């Protein structure tokens, strides 16, 4: 590993330009190039590689509030999908030298192999305060174009996340199987950008899973003869996913257990004619307090979403019961459908900030299938 500690940092200048004209100057991190997306921030102190590879971040420029990124390197086994899914990284200290013996690579090599453009040595505290006050917006990072006028022209062409369908772009293209074929329960997974750890949490609880592309219809799902259905997490605007909403409505009529996480939670709501909306900032981090209204317990949760379900519409809908609420802003974090074995949560129960505060949700899904 000695060569890892002799690598020189990159001094190539880079620019971050926000949609409202705000400019930040820093240094290149990762690949030299240009990238665009909607800027957001994550408050997690660890787990940067899991965040980078979470498909729910597709199309997002990520600001990390933790000051040091790269200090424990990267490891092949610590990914949530087949590749980096964030559109770009914005950080304070991009640390190429790492201290973990188990790491496979340094973050610079990792980013270059994955083709990810980033910027470091910027005031991330100022950037986060700006986004917090002004709301989520598009932005551009470049270490090859330093002309602000040219960057503004390129940024103007980037579509808004509002109304953008992205799940089909990160979904599997072919069905695949996970778990023991002799397992007690069979689960049909609609992959809108699922994380590997979610699937593993179900497989280790005695589920045999078949993971289907996002636009799979009910007939193909039923051919697997599943005991339950899972709607995964994923990126983009759920209201733009007419194909998934239609399938979710059809699955609701099958009277089989349904579990949804994150985007899957929003799609279950939309299938019940409960609208979603784009949040001012979204929730992204591993420190969000959520209250389980059924037990009275509070969970420390991992979250990553820029859309949410309409609380007033849920309260007016007699088909649905609210099961979880966010203690920071009272947004809806969980619902269940009255008279059916169907429930969902907005957060990520497979993640471990609590560390296992929310793993019971997988157990609840298994019990429904018994």
**Total number of distinct structural domains:** 2
How are the strands of the largest sheet arranged? 10-12-11-13-14-19-18-17-15-16
Number of helices: 11
Q: If you compute it from the alpha carbons, what radius of gyration comes out, rounded to the nearest whole angstrom? A: 21 Å
CATH level 1 name of the largest domain = Alpha Beta
Largest sheet: 10 strands, mixed
- In CATH terms, what is the architecture of the largest domain? 3-Layer(aba) Sandwich
- Name the shape in a single word: globular
- Terminal residue distance: 50 Å
Structural class: alpha/beta
Description of the structure:
The structure is a single chain. The chain has a 10-stranded mixed β-sheet, with helices on both faces. A 7-stranded mixed barrel has the order 1-2-8-6-4-3-9. It has a two-stranded parallel ribbon with strand order 5-7. The protein contains 11 helices and 19 strands. It has helices at residues 48-52, 107-114, 124-134, 148-155, 167-170, 196-203, 218-223, 242-252, 263-271, 311-315, 360-369, and strands spanning 13-18, 23-30, 34-42, 60-64, 68-69, 88-90, 93-94, 117-120, 137-142, 176-178, 185-190, 207-212, 228-231, 258-261, 276-292, 298-309, 320-326, 332-337, 342-345. The protein is an alpha/beta fold and 370 residues long. Helix 8 (242-252) packs across helix 9 (263-271). It starts with 12 loop residues before the first strand and ends with a helix. The chain has 2 domains: 2-155, Carbamoyl-phosphate synthase small subunit, N-terminal domain (Glucose Oxidase, domain 1); 167-369, Rossmann fold.
């Amino acid at each position: 590993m000695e060569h890892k500690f002799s690598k020189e940092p990159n001094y190539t200048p880079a620019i971050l330009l926000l949609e409202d004209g705000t400019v930040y100057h820093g240094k290149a991190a990762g690949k030299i190039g240009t990238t665009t997306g909607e800027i957001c921030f994550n408050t997690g102190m660890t787990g940067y590689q899991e965040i980078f590879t979470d498909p729910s971040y597709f199309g997002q420029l990520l600001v990390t509030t933790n000051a040091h990124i790269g200090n424990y390197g990267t490891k092949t086994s610590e990914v949530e999908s087949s590749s980096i899914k964030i559109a770009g990284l914005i950080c304070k200290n991009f640390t190429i030298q790492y201290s973990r013996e188990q790491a496979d690579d340094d973050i610079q090599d990792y980013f270059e192999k994955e083709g990810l453009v980033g910027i470091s040595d910027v005031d991330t505290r100022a950037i986060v305060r700006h986004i917090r006050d002004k709301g989520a917006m598009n932005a551009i990072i470049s270490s090859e174009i330093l002309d602000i006028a040219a960057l503004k022209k390129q940024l103007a062409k980037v579509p808004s996340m509002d109304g953008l369908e992205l799940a089909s772009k990160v979904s599997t293209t072919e069905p695949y199987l996970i778990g023991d074929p002799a397992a007690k329960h069979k689960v049909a997974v609609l992959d809108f950008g699922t994380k590997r750890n979610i699937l593993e949490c179900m497989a280790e609880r005695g589920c045999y899973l078949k993971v289907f592309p996002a636009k799979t219809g009910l007939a193909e799902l039923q051919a697997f003869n599943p005991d339950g259905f899972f709607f995964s997490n994923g990126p983009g605007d759920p209201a733009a996913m007419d194909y998934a909403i239609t399938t979710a409505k059809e699955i609701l009529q099958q009277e089989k257990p349904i579990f949804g996480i994150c985007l899957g939670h929003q799609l279950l709501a939309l299938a019940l004619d409960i609208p979603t909306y784009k949040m001012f900032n979204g929730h992204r981090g591993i420190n969000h307090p959520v209250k389980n209204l059924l037990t009275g317990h509070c969970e420390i949760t991992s979250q990553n979403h820029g859309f949410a379900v309409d609380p007033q519409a849920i309260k007016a809908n007699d088909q649905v019961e609210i099961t979880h609420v966010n203690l920071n802003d009272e947004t809806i974090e969980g619902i269940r459908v009255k008279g059916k074995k169907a429930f969902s949560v907005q957060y990520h129960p497979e993640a471990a900030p609590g560390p296992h505060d929310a793993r019971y949700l997988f157990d609840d899904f298994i019990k429904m299938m018994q």
